[in-house]
Design a protein that fits this description.
By secondary structure, this protein is mainly beta. The protein has four domains: 3-130, no CATH class; 148-373, no CATH class; 383-483, Immunoglobulin-like (Sandwich); 490-630, no CATH class. It is built from two helices and 46 strands. It has an 18-stranded mixed beta sheet that branches. An eight-stranded antiparallel beta barrel has the order 1-2-3-4-5-6-7-8. An eight-stranded antiparallel β-barrel has the order 9-10-11-12-13-14-15-16. Strand 43 and strand 44 (580-585) form a beta hairpin. The longest helix has 5 residues, at 3-7. The protein starts with a helix and ends in a 21-residue tail after the last strand.
């Protein structure tokens, strides 16, 4: 039986894969061989956030290393009474040198699962452009000889069960975290589980399941959790799949629509450091207490962790509001000796050697997250690091994509023969002997060094996918591809790096700082990049005009710690090249101290930079809160 004919159905057409033929596919060999996989797929059915349909597809997929796959799949479908099984033989995929790419979605004709291949060969992704929510995870099969004894150690697991929004309503969604200690002889012992339920808000529920056993069959394990007389967070049979090194596990019920991810813990304190590829599910149920709704999103992306700070990106699908969004953020962490740490919305566990991090939501924010160390691509000659195209202001990871007019930084090696800065505007398209070609257009260059270049993305770069090359003298670099957005906002920070206080000026052009904070009702100027096309249009690399200001063609909004702020101007910064300016009036309702300064466009939301606010005066306007869709789980 051909599953492709049995249950495929049409969804919203994807915009990006229309130019799939231009995507760098030099990394297709990163997906090669037979993998276990699981995809959970949800369709919102009403204004409460309940589902009209849910599916789970799982079993084995074989990648040929050249862009084609075959699935031996099993389907659980809420619209069917029994499991279905069969073969899907016409799948395709395209993976770039960084491991970033997409595979055709076996559950929806014409749609793609965007995602990334980690250093360990695990692929994680989501169909963010397709008009539904899903999460897809695949890992190479365990090596020959794997058995019951292979499953051994201490694992921390995050589980999310969204069967409730289908059968009982969104208030019955479940989210939990627990440890398993497989002994290599088929025993897990007692598993103690803590978690949250939708209607329970922040109430912590517990479950203790003694005497659990596991069995090995066909390259995976099966575990059965009993139901309990009180609150049951996890129950029934679960299939457990593992990465070849045993450090990462994932899976779910053979006849349900749940997903879990887990990590093997180490015996020493791990270090969370470097670039990670991530994906996950968020279910925001904070509005249920007031008779509201559940808000689901699924996502993929990346994050860069160093010294207790994270700059991250998630491309997330929030189909309740019918459009995908690029979300960039900053976060902090202090990993404890047992490998765990928490934020206000998430509990995290970092595995042995820091190779994998998994996360579980804290009610009323139900969520799972998995982040795996990225591969480390290398090259010779004039070489662009395929992970090294970032926003010059926010340093958002490369999965955030680029936008017309954005100032970007490109990292690599042998990009230029020396260090040189542009000495006049418009910025030149050749600096020293170096040029940068983006979709056939020569980009204005701000500076060059052998290891990095900063350029402005030409306004006519087009849509969908950008191809980027550096030309140093007579030598052309490798080609790197990037997705193109309408906007990719990033606020400059002081010091630079995307974390800390934003480059924000008072009306007298002095800097907003903790010693000189902004006050309620004051209008300040924020300096940033990535706001897209402008009107009147200007020459690439030219300074922003003075007499007739050049406004953004995209609607730009701002908020400060979740309170909407009035934007009085959004456009190019006058007399400056490669720089945008947003004038923001500080809203009422803010307390004294540091707050997040958030900027959004039609397809983007950035919450990294800080702004210092003075104590509110006795008179203030009515505060205007940002719609719930802007609340994010980190």
């Amino acid at each position: 039986m051909k599953l492709a004919r049995l249950f495929l159905f049409c969804a919203v057409a994807s915009a990006w894969p229309a130019a799939a033929q231009t995507w760098d596919s030099s990394g297709n060999g990163m997906l090669s061989g037979t993998y276990y996989f699981r995809e959970v797929y949800y369709i919102i059915g009403d204004n409460a956030g309940d589902f009209s349909r849910a599916l789970a597809l799982y079993n084995q997929v074989t990648f040929d290393g050249n862009g084609h796959y075959t699935m031996n799949a099993v389907l659980a479908d809420s619209n069917a009474g029994t499991l279905q099984s069969g073969t899907i033989s016409n799948g395709t995929y395209s993976i770039s040198a960084s491991g970033y790419g997409f595979i055709s979605n076996p559950l929806s004709t014409g749609d793609f699962i965007f995602g990334l291949v980690s250093q360990s060969g695990v692929f994680v992704g989501s169909s963010t452009e397709a008009g539904f929510n899903d999460l897809f995870v695949a890992a190479p099969l365990l090596p020959a000889g794997a058995s019951t004894s292979t499953f051994k150690g201490t694992y921390t697991v995050a589980d999310i069960d969204l069967s409730g929004p289908l059968y009982y309503g969104v208030g019955y969604a479940l989210n939990s975290m627990f440890q398993m200690n497989p002994d290599g002889a088929g025993n897990l012992g007692t598993v103690n589980i803590t978690g949250y339920a939708g209607l329970g808000g922040s109430t912590v529920y517990t479950q203790s399941s003694p005497g659990i056993k596991y069995v090995f069959s066909n390259g995976a394990w099966s575990v059965t959790f009993p139901s309990t007389s009180n609150a049951t967070l996890v129950s029934g049979q679960k299939y457990v799949y593992s990465s070849p090194d045993g450090n990462f596990i994932f899976g779910g019920s053979p006849n349900g629509f749940d997903m879990f991810v887990g990590v093997r813990m180490g015996t020493t304190a791990p270090t969370l450091n470097g670039l990670y590829y991530q994906a996950g599910i968020d279910e925001d149920e904070s509005n249920l207490a007031t008779g509201g709704y559940g808000l689901l999103d699924t996502y993929y992306g990346s994050l860069s962790a160093s010294g207790g700070s994270i700059v991250g990106h998630q491309r997330q699908s929030d189909v309740f509001f019918k459009y995908p969004t690029g979300y960039t953020y900053s976060d902090t962490y202090t990993v404890k000796t047992d490998g765990t740490y928490s934020t206000p919305a998430m509990r995290y566990a970092v595995g042995a050697g820091g190779a994998v991090r998994i996360g579980s939501g804290i009610g009323p924010f139900l969520a799972i997250n998995v982040a795996l160390q990225a591969p480390s691509p290398t090259g010779s000659g004039v070489y662009i690091n395929p992970q090294g195209v970032v926003n010059a202001a926010s340093f958002a990871p490369f999965t955030a994509g680029i936008s017309p007019g954005e100032l970007i930084t490109i990292y690599g090696s042998n990009l230029a023969s020396g260090t040189q800065f542009a000495s006049s505007v418009p910025f030149p398209t050749m600096l020293g002997n170096t040029q940068v070609n983006i979709n056939g257009l020569m980009a204005p260059i701000y500076y060059v060094t052998p290891g990095q270049i900063s350029v402005i993305v030409p306004y006519a770069v087009g849509t969908s996918i950008a191809t980027i090359q550096v030309i140093n003298g007579d030598t052309t670099s490798n080609t790197v591809t990037s997705l193109i957005n309408l906007t990719t906002p990033g606020v400059f920070t002081i010091p630079s790096g995307g974390i800390g206080y934003g480059a924000v000026l008072h009306a007298d052009y002095s800097l907003v700082t903790p010693a000189s904070p902004a006050q309620i009702g004051e209008t300040v100027s924020v300096y940033l990049t990535g706001l897209g096309t402008v009107n009147p249009a200007i020459q690439d690399g030219a300074a922003g005009p003075v007499t007739t200001l050049s406004n953004t063609t995209n609607t730009i909004a701002a908020d400060i710690s979740g309170i909407a702020a009035t934007v009085t101007y959004a456009g190019l910064a006058p007399q400056l090249a490669g720089l945008y300016q947003v004038n923001v009036t500080i809203p009422a309702g803010l307390t004294a101290g540091d707050h997040t300064l958030d900027i959004s466009g039609p397809d983007s939301y950035a919450t990294e930079a800080l702004i210092s606010i003075r104590a509110a005066s006795t008179t203030s306007a009515v505060e205007q809160r940002v719609p719930p869709r802007r609340k994010r789980i980190q």
